Please model this.
Amino acid sequence: MKQTIIAANWKMNLTVHEASTLVHRLNENIKTHRDIEIILAPNFVALQPLSLEIDHRKFKLAAQNAYIQDSGAYTGEVSFSMLRNLVSYCLIGHSERRIYFNETLEVVRDKVQAAIRNGIRPILCVGETSHERTNGETRRVVHDQVTTALSNLTSEEIEQVVIAYEPVWAISTFGGQVAKPDDIQKVMKLIRHSVYELYGQSAADHISILYGGSVKADTVGAYLALEDCNGALVGGASLVYKEFAGIVDRAYQVAHQ
Ligand code: 13P
Model:
């Protein structure tokens, strides 16, 4: 049975001390469930200390970004090879990186490949802006994002990939409109179909697709119940331990319904 993935994207928040306190609280309030994979994505400086603190049976770590090259004169960057053995996952192509840091389709594709080359599972983030949605471009935009990012992988490599569908207009800091589950299901189906076109039925069945965008404990259930939804990527609510623990509880309930 496929695990439900609940991932916390802490974005550029929390000092090392605050991150450590939050992990302590999460540890007290979350039980280990074999069928739920809980992923924490803190900022870079908190990764190393947290890796020494967390219960690795309960939590996996993710980076929020990394650079394509393994080493060299790229001032200010951190490479996937430096994150090897420190994180299990890395967010790639988050809309904040596409919008604020001009990450193109090709940069995102190269990052997916660099992550896999270094034994790190990419969480590929895709999603249309409010403008693209209004213009009826959702399907084209998401299809392009998925097919470019996942081009040229082997059938073993595609198994490492997780996809997060985060419509930009639903992310709390970009407006946080509440997305209708039916609308989300339509796009998730398209994403799975895009994987099918590229890599066939087994890859499409196997790949996990997460929903992200203003997810909270009282809304996550409706998304997790969708046919093509295998988990959630949580921003703001993941900074509040009761809320995040509530999301994990809800995920457990949905998985055991
Ligand atoms: P919010 O949950 O704050 O809307 O953020 C979603 C997100 O961007 C997670 O990556």
User: Anything to note?
Assistant: The chain has a mean pLDDT of 97. The two ends are 14 Å apart (CA to CA).
